[in-house]
Amino acid sequence: MELTGLDLRWPGLLAVGALVAVAVAYAVHRGLARRSARAAAAVANSDTLTALPEFRRALRLHRIRMTVLAVSAVLLGGAALVGAARPLDTTVEKPQTRSRDIMLCLDISGSMAAYDATLVTTFKTLVKSFEGERIGLVIFNSSAATVFPLTDDYDFINDELDDASKALGGDPEFESFFAGTFNGRGTSLIGDGLATCVSSFDKVDLQRARSVVFATDNHVAGRPVIELDEAGELAKAKGVRVYGLNPEESGPDDEAVEMREVVTGTSGRYYPMSDQSAISGIVDSVQAQEATLIDAASRALYTDDPKVPIALAGVGLVGLIGASRRWGS
């Protein structure tokens, strides 16, 4: 963090205030001069009076008092003007963050209909375990659609997952949730879905640790453009780890074996959804990846700093009060 010093939110007030103060001072001076000219009168034999020590002492104290009054008034008025201009303490912060990116990838094909609402609940539980990671959601059937891109706005993420729960629970008000997922040939094109999820990370930000939580039963019903093993190779090439969640595994079936081989080939891990350790295992595995130190954009921070004008105003006020009292003779 770099300190840049004192600044003012409304510096123009100082110029305006200074002009007003000069105008008021000039008007007061002219008024006093006219009054003094009208009240002036010659007094004979006044030298004897003005030569008295008591008179000289009183005159000296009067001049001191007037000087203190003038200086205190200027100090109080100037401090009030600076305070009105809002003094700010300005610092420039160059934050560095350590973070990871996590893409939630959900198969919403017909064979997954009985499990998707539960999987979204699992995703919400995963989100609660993270702090600072960017999270996105992609759903797929015959084609893939991004529900929300990578973001670290956790309130927004939870709201979107709540909407996903309602849509996958059959709420007709959320039918638009499925838009963009029926544009391919067939249904449940698993490889295409994983490839889309892997390609959804920022292409310009390759420093972040990146993971995909891939929820599917791996039951293909159509002609994918990219096979699952090819999508796994794409993930490895991009340095993306895939963590598989299979809600329908009842044994070592071919689909489960293939899915396990693909995700473990990316240095990820495979879990049947019935595995009670799945959530903690995914969280621990993701957090075990070293979060890369990333320089964020510099930003200026402004903090109100009225200490100086308040202190000067206090001094001026004390001077005015003290000088306004009658001086003892």
Automatic annotation (TrEMBL):
This is VWA domain-containing protein. Residues 101-286 form the VWFA domain. Keywords: Membrane, Transmembrane, Transmembrane helix. Pfam families: VWA (PF00092). The chain crosses the membrane at residues 12-28, 66-85.
